[in-house]
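Hi V.,

You were right to ask for the full record rather than a summary. Here it is.
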Amino acid sequence: MSAFAGVVEHFADLLQPLFHGSATAAAVVLFTALVRLLVHPLSRAAARGQRAGAALRPRIAELRVRYRGDPKAFQKAVLELHARERVSPLAGCLPGLLQAPAFFLLYHLFSSSSIGDDANGLLSHRLLDAPLGGRWADALAHGGPFGAQGLVYVGVFAVVAAVACFSYRRTKRAMSVSAGAGAGTGAGVAGAVSRATPFLPFFTLVTVAVVPLAAALYIVTSTTWSALERAALYRDVPSTLVRG
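Predicted structure:
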């Protein structure tokens, strides 16, 4: 933890001439961008894998008809098809899984009152008037939603909402194309999940509201990167196959 704190402080020192009192917040954004840049090759590989998975959908539909009434045989045939074509159904999960340690490390860094035997001085660093170790509830207690701290969260929520709307529109458009091609949204649990998928980005607002501001900045930066990255990499992949 102390080594990671040193990395954040070093980034903040480099950014101090540009961002002054908000240099540590800028360091968190820079750290997030570097993590996403390192994971980007895996995201590209996942996009290629999911594009290949989309190409297998007609063959999977044929297997579903052939093994109707025998779910175990169908699942085995699908796994064999994926293995034969070297397509991993879990390819899209890898980028998200590899980012998780970075997020949790940042979350704990700005949630801990001490680092080793010393007080955690990073908690008092600020983005404008809001401390990076604080939460939205703290801002509400110090001036309300439109106080000096609350306005910082208003800006953060606005960015998250804008990204969520962008993702929502893109997912709905892709699902419409998929349905027009005959894929549909299905029925039962699978259909309910498909119909709920476009709304998932809006749950990020809840996460941002309850985590420390530094972790919220990580989420905002990462979700913005993800939305733009998916728009570029998954242009021709049906939305039902896009994850992460």
